[in-house]
Amino acid sequence: MTNRTRVVLADDHPIFLAGLANLIRAHAGLDLVGECQSGKRALEMIGSELPDVAVVDISMPELNGIMLTRRIAQQVPGVRVIILTLHEERSFLNQALAAGARGYVLKRSAAEQLVSAIDAVSRGEIYVDPALGNQADAPQSSPSFEAGRLLSLTQREASVLKYTAKGLTTKEIAARLALSGKTVETYKMRGAEKLGLKTRAAIVRFAAAQGWLDEV
Known about the structure:
Elements: E1 5-10, H1 14-25, E2 30-36, H2 39-49, E3 53-57, H3 65-75, E4 80-85, H4 90-99, E5 103-106, H5 110-122, E6 127-128, H6 143-151, H7 155-165, H8 170-177, H9 181-195, H10 200-210
Parallel strand pairs: 1-2, 1-3, 3-4, 4-5, 5-6
């Protein structure tokens, strides 16, 4: 066969990106047609190069991997997306697939799994890192389950969590929502509890997966 799969890589860690680039270049059936370190630049590059497959980090500046995947699905639907991530939580896997990703590969196993993932999605298949087993199909972690958890939030709880994820202090959130600081903390605690988020970092990761950080 003479057809080669054209690939774009996007990851904000230069050393890791260089390693991925070398991996792609070393494979006879793959052509690396672009590499970048931000979600915004990735969207521009994918739109101009029209690769067969885009391999994107889930956590990037300007546009995170989940939002980038949604934009690609809308603007260049022929490009198949593989998410690269450190996150092994079911919620991130299901968010990626719901956004339109065709593959989900853990960074710790990228050297062994990425080429197989690219081959699979190029054939129209869905590829999930074997380390995650059948998590994508687990009923307790399906997109509908995640949606149910989101629907359990009150409007105030959701607003407080979104502002928290964006880095606002309790005082700043209170001013924006015309609430007391104590009330803001109560909403934050209740909302985080409903979503199973125990730390601020977890709130930020969840918000990124939901696209909250890209909302104006």
